[in-house]
Write a structure and sequence with these properties.
Layout (H helix, E strand, L loop, with lengths): L7 H9 L1 E4 L5 E3 L6 H10 L19 H17 L7 E4 L5
Antiparallel strand pairs: 1-2, 1-3
Length: 97
């Protein structure tokens, strides 16, 4: 069995988080729930898989806003440099934390 360095509480918070995909056809994804909207987005972008990633708070270690903003921008630059399509999104826990 895989043992994570992320605490069980933090992992549970990730499971409870709404992952909002923005763009032309916004939708919300939840962990362990099939998303028909994601399947539609895959067809629209001519792909059969995707990942929801962030450059912020690496390994669940909180960084300040400026550091997270730079990491987010760097991720966007890297994806663009690799000619990978991406859509902005935001993950937000129901407690708004």
């Amino acid at each position: 069995m895989f043992e994570s360095i992320i605490s069980a509480e933090t992992a549970q918070a990730y499971r409870e988080t709404e992952y909002r995909v923005l763009g032309d056809a916004p939708f919300v994804m939840l962990v362990d729930e099939r998303s028909s909207a994601l399947a539609v987005a895959h067809k629209r972008h001519h792909v059969d898989c995707s990942a929801y990633v962030t450059g912020c708070n690496p390994l669940s270690q909180s960084l300040d806003g400026a550091a997270n903003a730079e990491r987010h921008a760097a991720l966007g630059r890297e994806l663009s440099a690799r000619s990978l399509a991406f859509v902005e999104g935001v993950g937000q826990h129901l407690s708004n934390q």
